[in-house]
Specification:
Blueprint lengths: L3 H7 L2 E5 L4 H10 L3 E4 L6 H17 L3 E5 L2 H7 L3 E4 L6 H8 L4 E6 L2 H8 L6 E4 L15 H11 L4 E4 L7 H6 L5 E3 L1 H4 L4 H11 L12
Parallel strand pairs: 1-2, 1-8, 2-3, 3-4, 4-5, 5-6, 6-7, 7-8
C-alpha cells in the first residue's frame, strides 16, 4: 500500500475484528470494507503476528488498509498500514515514533474535549468517535449518541469514523448526523452474508459521495 493517507481519505467503511476466518474477511472486503483493524485484546504476541500477517495479505489484495489495535511495535513487525490506540494506551506521539512517518496512527475519542485535543495532535491521522450506541464490545463505556457525531462533524480537524453499535438499520441516521465514515464490528462479524451487509452499509453512508476532512 503505497499511499496510505490517500486511501484513508477515500475510506468510508472500517471493520474492527479479531482474527476472523479468511473467507469472512474476504467477503467483507469484496462488499466494500476499506480498512480492517485487527483487535486481539487478550492474545499473545505470536497469535497477533500470525493473524496480522494473514489478514495483511487479504487486505492488500483487495486494496484495503490493515490497522493493528494497541501494539505499534507489532504493527511495524507485521508490516501493517498503521496502529490504533485508545485514550489509556500508548500516547499517539509514542506510537508515531515506533511506526514511523509513513504509517497511520488513529485514536479513539469519546468526548468533545477529546475530539478537540486530537485535532491539535500532529502525530494523528484519524480518530474514532463513539460508541454511538451501547455495544458489548466496549463494556462499561457509555454510549455517546448522535450528539458527539454532530460535534465531530462540525469541529473535527481530522477524518473521523463513527463507531459503536452501528448496523444497516441505523447507519443512515449516523450519516444524517454528519458522519461520512463508519466503523463496525458485529454488523459484519455476525452477519450471515458479510459481502452483502458491507455493500448495504456502504450504500447507507453514501459510498459514492465526496467527503471532507471531518465528515461530510
Amino acid at each position: 500500500m503505497t499511499n496510505r493517507r490517500h486511501a484513508l481519505q477515500q475510506a468510508r467503511l472500517y471493520l474492527v475484528c479479531d482474527g476472523i476466518p479468511e473467507a469472512r474477511l474476504r467477503a467483507a472486503l469484496r462488499g466494500g470494507v476499506q480498512i480492517v483493524q485487527l483487535r486481539l485484546k487478550d492474545a499473545d504476541e505470536a497469535d497477533i503476528l500470525a493473524a496480522g500477517r494473514r489478514m495483511l495479505t487479504a487486505c492488500h489484495e483487495h486494496g484495503a488498509l490493515l490497522i493493528v489495535n494497541d501494539h505499534p511495535e507489532l504493527a511495524a513487525r507485521i508490516g501493517a498500514d498503521g496502529v490504533h490506540v485508545g485514550q489509556d494506551d500508548v500516547a499517539p506521539v509514542q506510537a508515531r515514533a515506533i511506526v514511523g512517518p509513513d504509517r497511520l496512527v488513529g485514536l479513539s475519542t469519546h468526548t468533545p474535549a477529546q475530539v478537540d485535543a486530537a485535532g491539535a495532535e500532529a502525530a494523528l491521522d484519524y480518530i474514532g468517535v463513539g460508541p454511538v450506541h451501547a455495544t458489548p464490545t466496549k463494556p462499561g463505556r457509555a454510549a455517546v449518541g448522535l450528539e458527539l457525531v454532530r460535534y465531530a462533524a462540525a469541529h473535527a480537524r481530522l477524518p473521523f469514523f463513527a463507531i459503536g453499535g452501528i448496523d444497516t438499520g441505523n447507519a443512515a441516521a449516523v450519516r444524517g448526523a454528519g458522519a461520512g465514515r463508519i466503523a463496525v464490528v458485529r454488523a459484519l462479524t455476525g452477519s450471515p452474508d458479510p459481502e452483502r451487509t458491507a455493500a448495504e452499509l456502504r450504500a447507507a453512508i453514501g459510498a459514492d459521495t465526496e467527503i471532507g476532512v471531518g465528515a461530510a
